[in-house]
Design a protein that fits this description.
31% of the residues lie in helices and 15% in strands. The strands form four sheets. It has a six-stranded mixed β-sheet, with helices on one face. The chain has 389 residues and is of the alpha+beta class. It starts with a strand and ends in a 21-residue tail after the last helix. It is elongated and about 80 Å long. The chain has two domains: 203 residues, Deoxyribonuclease I, Chain A (4-Layer Sandwich), CATH 3.60.10; 139 residues, no CATH class. Helix 4 packs antiparallel against helix 5 and helix 8 crosses helix 10.
Length: 389
Amino acid sequence: MDTSCGTAVPRKNILRGVGVLVEKETAKSVIECTPVSDRIIAIRLKGKPRNMTIIQIYAPTSDSEDEEIERFYQDLEQTIKEKAKKDILIIQGDWNAKIGYKESTGWEGTIGDFGVGTRNERGIMLLEFAKRHHLVVANTLHNHKLSRRTTWHSPDGVTHNQIDYILVNRRFQTGINRPKTRTLKKTDIGSDHDPVMMTFRMRLSKEKKVSQRRTKFDLEKLKDREVAEKYRSELAGRFAPLLLLTNEEPQQLCDQFTDITFNTANEIIEDKTGQLLTNNTEVTARWKEYCRELYQHQADVDRTVLAEATSEGEPEPVILESEVRAAIIKLKMNKAPGYDNLPAELIKCGGDPIIKTLHLLCNRILQIDKWPTQLTQSILIPIPKKENE
């Protein structure tokens, strides 16, 4: 596989930014993508025998304050710490640092002799970071001609430097194809930087999506007063810390809401048989039941609300807790659960803990206009029709 780095000239009013382009076939191997800041983004690829984490960076320039460069390295250190330790690690991008030509003495195993120019203070910081994390600077290992090593050119075309680097775990450096790890020339990308390419030998594998198994709760137990009270009490205790997170992203809030509700129900409302709905006959029967109930239901909607005009520029009113309560009361029972696998019975029986948490979630969605996955997806499993059925 090939990996490359480079920094384009920033647009007007855009100070910085990073991103990762992945070819369509490689995209099938992406496990996750994590934007860390406007200077750091990470993606993780599924591979054989190890996964790979690629971190794209844009370091502060040489005229930036020391606090900014320190904050950048702190964020980078934290990003590495949070990634799987066994992964092949690649960190690439514009480091705004010079590590020098034939200055590998004392830094053996971290850089080669084939850099450019004279090392500066930011270069020392980069080398200390690389050595601390057992990384090698891949595009300094081969004796390419100067034009294949320089990565940045001054606007007047007089000054040429190497400030873009690709760092790789030292233990995996045998995967680096050194002659093919170099600067690419004659690329008209409207930038004072040239792309840097590394060819790295590893096998990728497609990320297989694990089908969600559906748990069948014994919802009849909720009719037992003691069980219902215990369920609400457990939810109240587990939701309490969540209600304090008023600035949390809707997706994180929704994920935690789903996990807490599901796990609490799983502990108190046990499955009738201790089995999952994986039997074809059971699935087929439940599908027919769901469709029959779905199309019998007539939504009761006050359409006059849609016709009411709102003043331009007027802020959206907040969602009231009473509105959330009213919506929950209207939920229909005995319905198949949706994408989150939470039946309506668990929501209705949750009482105030559920209402208050959903009230917080709904207003966060309204405030920042981001919808969690659970609220934008549904499950539809068509069953092929047989003859004479």
